[in-house]
Structures are given as C-alpha cells and as structure tokens.
Design a protein that fits this description.
homodimer; alpha/beta; Aspartate Aminotransferase, domain 2; 2 domains; 13 strands; about 45% helix; about 15% strand
Chain lengths: ~375, ~375
C-alpha cells in the first residue's frame, strides 16, 4: 500500500485537504448518471452559487484551473477577435499564452507585479479598440495581490465587451460577487480555498456571456463547449464522465463551508492572512506586494538580501517539514517566497509557519530582531477582531 | 459525513474501485513539484509503458477520456486537414464530432454496429485521398466489439498518415501493442480497466506522431498541447496542477496490475467476459455483436422481444442492487443492455451478475430455459482453462 511522507503542506495551492473531505473521496464509485449522483450535483450547484455570487448554475468539468481559463476564452473567442488581458503576474501571462494559442488578437495592460492597477488605464484602452473581452486574474498567487473585479466590471456595464475572471486561487477565500460586479465568466478549481484535491474545474457564466456563446456558432472544442455542459446540467448531469470521487469531496467541502458560514470563512481567510503578514514583517521580511491590496489567500514576501529563496524553501521542508512555495516565474526566481492562507487554515497553522520561518532564518544566519517576534506580531494582529 | 448507497457497480465504466486504490486516493496531498511526487510520476511511467505496449513516455492529464480524444486530434490537425474516422459505434461518432469542432475535413468509414470491419474498405479509401490521420476506436463499449488495431496500423506503415486510437475502454483489459501495431497516438483514461476513479486522461505518442506535432507550429490549445506536457515530463513533472490524489490511485492500481502480472490480467478479462457471454446466451439473450470479435471488457446483449432495456436495468438496480448499463445512443435506446467485465472483476462477480439477471428476467416474465442456466453455462466456460 502506497504511503507518503508527512509534511505540513502550506502552499498557495494545492492545499491540505481535511480528513473529512479525503474520506469522502475514498467512497465507492456511483453510477454518474444515476439519481444519487444527480442529487449530489444538484446540491453542489446550490452550495456553489453563493460562493460565486451568482444566481446561475456553475458548470463542473474534469480538469485543472488552466483548462478552465482556456475553456472560458475558447467559448467566446473566434480566431482574430481581440481581447484585452490585464497582466499583473504569472497567471495574467498565462491568459495571454492561452489567447494566443486560440489565435486571438491580444492586447495587454501590463501592471507592475505586486502593485495596484489604475482602472483608468483599462478605461482608456477600451476607448481605443473594440474587445470581445477584458480578461483578468482576481487573485495573483504569484505576487500576493487580490485585484478589484468590481471596478473593471463597472467599466463594461453598458458595453458588449465581456469580463472574464480567473478566480482559481481567490474563490471561496476572497469575496466573489460576480452578478453584482458584472463579471461574465468566472473560472476556478477545486484545490485552493475549496480545500479539495485537484482535478475539478468550475465555470460560472452570466446571461450576457451566454448571449455571445449562443450567438457564435462554433466553439473550437467539443469537450470544453459550455453549451454542451449546460444542456447536460439542465438534465442534472455532466456531458462526459465526471471526476466522481473528487465531486464527493467537493460536496463535503461545500457542506463544511456552509456549516462554518461563507461570511465566516472569508473573514477567517482575511484575518489569518493579515496575521501572517504582520508576523513575517516582524521577522524583518518585506511583503512582495503593496500592503493595501494584499490577498487573503496567499502571503508573498521578498527574500532578504544575501539569502536565496530556494534555500529557505528547502530548509523549511527538510528541517521543519513545512512545505511553502518559492517563485515559479523565471523573473522571480530566488527572490520571492509564498505561503498559502487558503482553505482549511487555522491560527495554529499561522503560528507554526512563523515559528518555523523564524527558526529557518536563524539557521541560515538571519536571526529575527527578537525571539518569537513573528509569532508575537501575529498574536497581536489576531487579538484585534474587526 | 457524506454517505452513499451500496450498489454492485457493473457498468462498462466507471468501474468499481478496489478498496486499496480508494484508500490511496484518500492520502494527504503532496507538493506536486516535490521529489516524492516526481518519483511517483516516474514509477507510473515505467508501469504504464508495457500496458500501452510502448517504449515511450505516457502523458498524464487532468481530464476525461473525451478530453484526451480531443487532445489527440488537436495536436495533429490544422483546420481544413482531412481525417478518416472509422465509425462503428457511439465513440466513433464522438470522434467525428470532435474532428468537426476542430474544423477538420472529416470522411468516415461507417461500419455496421456490432459487426466486423473489412480493412480493405479503409485501404481503398486511403488510395482516394491523403489523410493526416486514420482515427479509430479500439474497443467500442457501445456495441461490445474490440477492433483490430494492428491490421489498420499495417495499412499505414509506409505512409505519412497517422493512426489515432481511442483505447479508453480497452487499455489494461485488452492487449495493446502500440509500437508493434503502428498506432501513433493512443489515448485512455483511469476509470475503466485501470480500476481507478475517473479524472485522469492518458496519451501515448509515437516518434512518427511527434514528427508531425513538432513540425506543425500551432496547436489550438494551450492546456492540451502535447509538446508542453512532454517538456514538463522530461523534467519529471506535469505542466499544470495534476490530479494528485487520483495519481496516487493510479500508481496503486499499476502496482496491483504488476503484482497479478499484465498477461494474467488480460487473460482474466478474456476468460470472465467469455463466461459472461456464455451465461447470458444460456439465459436466452442474444449478443449485440458478432461473437468472434467480442470485447473482453464489456458484454453487450440485445433486449429480448417484448421487454424494454430500461426496465431490466431499473429492476436489476432496485431489486438486486446491481447497476448495469442500458443504451446511451438514441438509436439503441431500449434495445441493448451492457455489463462491464473490466477492472477488478472476479468469477464471483460474473456468477452474481448471471443470478441477478436470471432473477430479473424471471420477475419480468421471461424465465430462463432452466433454473441457473446462465450460471451453469458460465461455470462450464470457466472450467476450460486455455
């Protein structure tokens, strides 16, 4: 029987999956076209809608977040059509690559990584060219920034241009009100704040987006065609074999979120991320991003002068069994480390992160300003309950 | 905590997942870019190669079998290029739909469902037009037929035309020797004879196919681009977050296959399918397909005059807790029932299937020719060990 080593998984996704959800995924397979599984899909729908902030159904696919980013664009773009992609990190860049693979005309709004975006830059560009869609990342896990979807949505309110949002690392950890904010396609995945194993992709679609999808005849994909998924969902099914056991896990996760209360879940994410940010700063680390736009699902920090990000990640893993992320983008290599605050995270996790991080910096010759400085700052932050 | 009702899952996929594999999928998430997970991917590679009958690596995706059918075509076809699809059932038709979504020119060789295909028809058509690929289904689970891949491969030996094979419901239950047979892209999925939960797609690719993929610049998908998957696999990874826990299950399944021995696994499938065919015929049911081309992973049978397939399926499920499949294709509705003999199937399963089927036919007013006729015929078939 397969065994795996025991780590504290503290990545910005995939996140640690609670025991209760893991056990759900080990249940026997049901007929995916039978009444019991249909009831589960229906229950997932009811519980997903408030998390997306939508009154409409949420399509469920076997796939990763990237597959869903691609599905979102494939369903609304014909070759040669123009999209405007806001690029403020690695996942914005990924959207550009996807749009190019789909033969779209791609313009970008390059934003400085980790910094706020002035929506007037988008507004200005919208006046210069007609776009099928503005494409943005809600939560850039590569830089630790949550972007304001509502202010971009407001720009498109009376325009035929759609707003496509990647909320893979945001959804269920950071508020999403897609209907109110004017987001037209929001995609996400199971392995971030939804606390599940990876392998499920999600897409919520506005009536405005459906008008475009239904009007344009051809989607250059059979598998990812939202019309086919919607037609099946209207009968309570998925068009193709879904990841049955992962959907058991998703349902269990959604029940847990509703037991805690979605508002409480979001507040917990915000509170714990703030505490971790206070802690790492007290250890002498600088945030990677502008403080006031910090994400609640990931804390990204700069690697201190003279140290290498990979060495910190490796030491934390080997000496303290805590797995955090370094940089993935070549431009950031060695310069940023990132800790997830998404999913089933507790105060104890944050305190342990800071103890291990302090010890690691100490082991690598960069002792904290004072013993337990990080933990003390985090406890101070946690004591204030907004 | 989620619970599910207790059924005997006897579908032609998804199949029942053995306890040992289910428990593997409940293990905690590992960093999918860490050394331990890379070792698992490498072990999967080593164990998958003999099952595909290839010396080359097997790409692993988050997705379903249909996603992989589409990926296979998307990687080799440019819009307007011609493919020749052999259509002998529902999954052949699906390939046609996928090729059309990709804007290919599609010619078909329509074969009578459930009947043998004369390869000379393919040979003849190949002389009339240049095709980028011949596309076929190894095992048509909609009709219960396993087709001969080698004889189609032989036709393409000295031609630039590629052979694309869907072995979703064949692989690991029916022999696949892709290198010897001249198959260029073979796709499969986790939830059939591989005994796993659904959610993993697999693709094995010949050097001849790589020449085409590498030569053609543009693949109209970022997520499904085989070049990107291969480049990552060469570093021991997947390009995007893989379905980590399902891959634990796949590894456990592959270890189980190697413990039993691949040859023994294939022989078990063949023996049990033959026993089930003998049994259902002794109950007075006619096979849907021509006997000599019967699949070893699914038994498809005609519904007797005066009965309706859906009623048999429903009675088996409600009265005997045995879940089998009816027809999925509209042309077959009510006329065919299908039982899986794929994955972790035992003699006890076949005997129980036949007992429940006999009882169901009896309950519906179609008693067997003699009591236990099906089970006796199956036992006779099982007594002969080739």
């Amino acid at each position: 029987m397969l065994t795996i080593p025991d780590y504290r998984l503290r990545l910005p996704g995939p996140t640690a999956v609670p025991e209760r959800i893991r056990q759900a995924t080990a249940l026997p397979i049901l007929n995916h076209r039978g009444a019991e599984f249909k009831a589960m899909l229906a229950e997932c729908q009811q519980r997903l809608k408030p998390i997306f902030g939508t009154a409409h159904n949420v399509l469920i696919f076997a796939g990763s977040g990237t597959a869903m980013m691609e599905a979102a664009l494939a369903n609304i773009l014909s070759p040669g059509e123009a999209v405007l992609v806001i690029v403020a990190g690695q996942f914005g860049e990924r959207f550009v690559s996807i749009a190019k693979a789909l033969a779209a005309e791609v313009d970008t709004i390059p934003a400085e990584w980790g910094r706020a975006l002035d929506p007037r830059r988008v507004e200005h560009q919208l006046k210069r060219r007609d776009y099928r869609a503005v494409v943005m990342v809600h939560n850039e896990s590569s830089t630790g920034v949550a972007y304001n979807v509502a202010e971009i949505g407001a720009l498109l309110k009376n325009s035929p241009t759609l707003l496509v949002v990647d909320s893979v690392s945001g959804l269920a950890g950071i508020e999403m009100k897609m209907d109110d904010w004017g987001a037209d396609i929001v995609v996400s995945a199971s392995q971030k704040s939804l606390m599940c194993a990876p392998g499920i992709g999600l897409a919520a679609i506005s009536p405005k987006a459906w008008t475009v999808i239904d009007r344009d005849g051809r989607v250059p994909s059979f598998f990812a065609d939202f019309r086919r998924a919607k037609a099946s969902l209207d009968k309570g099914e998925t068009p193709f074999t879904p990841p049955v056991t992962l959907i058991y896990g998703l349902l269990e996760a959604l029940r847990m979120i509703d037991e805690e209360g979605l508002a409480n879940v979001l507040k917990r994410h915000s509170r714990l991320a703030a505490a971790l940010r206070a802690g790492v700063q007290a250890l002498g680390l600088e945030l990677y991003n502008q403080q006031n736009i910090s994400s609640s699902t990931v804390v990204a920090m700069k690697v201190p002068q003279g140290l290498e990000g990979g060495a910190i990640v490796q030491h934390l893993r080997e000496r303290y069994r805590t797995v955090i992320a370094g940089a993935r983008h070549p431009s950031q290599t060695g310069k940023v480390i990132r800790i997830g605050t998404m999913g089933m995270v507790s105060e104890a996790d944050i305190i342990t992160d800071l103890r291990h991080l302090e010890a690691t910096l100490n082991d690598l010759g960069r002792p904290a300003p004072s013993a337990n400085a990080g933990v003390r700052a985090a406890l101070d932050a946690l004591a204030i309950r907004p």
